[in-house]
User: Fold this.
Amino acid sequence: MLRESVDGLKWLAETQSDAMVLTSSGTGAMEAAISNTISPGDRVLSLVCGVFSERWAKLASAFGAEVERLKVEPGKAVTAEQVRAHLEKSTTKFHAVTITHNETSTGVLNDVQQIGQAVRQHGALSIVDAVTSFGATELPIDKWQLDVVVSGSQKALMLPPGLGVIFFGPKAWEAKSKCKTHSFYFDLNKYKKSLQEDTTPFTPNVSLIAGLQASIKMMKEEGKEAIFARHLRMRESLRSGLRAMGLELFVNDDCASPSITSILPPADLSVDKIRKTLKDRYRIIVADGQEELKGKIFRIGHMGYVFDRDILMTLASLEAALTELGHDCRANEAVKAAAALLSSTSR
Ligand SMILES: Cc1ncc(COP(=O)(O)O)c(C=O)c1O
Assistant:
């Protein structure tokens, strides 16, 4: 089961890098990334555009790194030009740059391909959080020459929470050989060695590995390109429906996430009221904003096992909820707009 799962993950990431499955949540895989590559005193640049990208900075600091942040306002993407300029003006080299591919707290997709190139030219390791992008959008690790990429089971891999995934490339192994930090549970040398015997160094989450084997099989049947195209269709139809309803989207089209969409509530309604009505009336759970965005946006997740019907049902329920709350949301326009888009694009 493990062998098939690991091979499947490598297929999805188009990589020859080592892929390892950890019994942990996504943050555990993030911790494995840092604790195998970063020594105390190493300079790390963290690209921060929300809660999860800030987590990298906190994690690297916890392991003694000297962390610098390149921060953009929430709802915006970090651009490769900003990264390049920051790296060029730095007098001493950075050992690593942390990047969050899909910033789930805002709904922004960062251009990891271009950013990765800037990081490589600087000579630093690229350490990428792909928790909510892996399996939802393309992430060809070898083509984009990324060194460390992490993900988790409970997002586009369509499983319950409990597995972390880490891809570790040649430059990352080289960094590990010189790394002065030692984690016992997350020591990737142990995972690599055990994998040669199709096992793990510690008791694995067996049921989830069985699940991963099954979800990889489903993904192979659907096909990578079809999965990524479906996520784009979900994004486009949802955004089109939300706009038709008169709602304002938090993120511009050019960096909108294929797996989660953030929406500003109408001026006359609170996020709490919208979320509560959707949950109580229609059993649909949408997320609040996090930290500084709490109460300012709500977020609809559309990653993994999500299809046309889910988008239409969510839009229809949101329209009904807003109408019930006394907001004029041009009822029926959203579903019409989304349905028009869904029926005009191929599956
Ligand atoms: C982008 C991103 N990174 C990291 C995490 C943390 O993953 P976990 O909650 O599995 O530890 C999440 C969780 O939502 C996430 O969306």
In short: The mean pLDDT is 96. The chain is about 45% helix and 15% strand. The first strand starts at residue 18 and ends at 23. Residues 25-27, 52, 100, 102, 104, 129, 131-132, 152, 161 surround pyridoxal-5'-phosphate (CB under 6 Å).
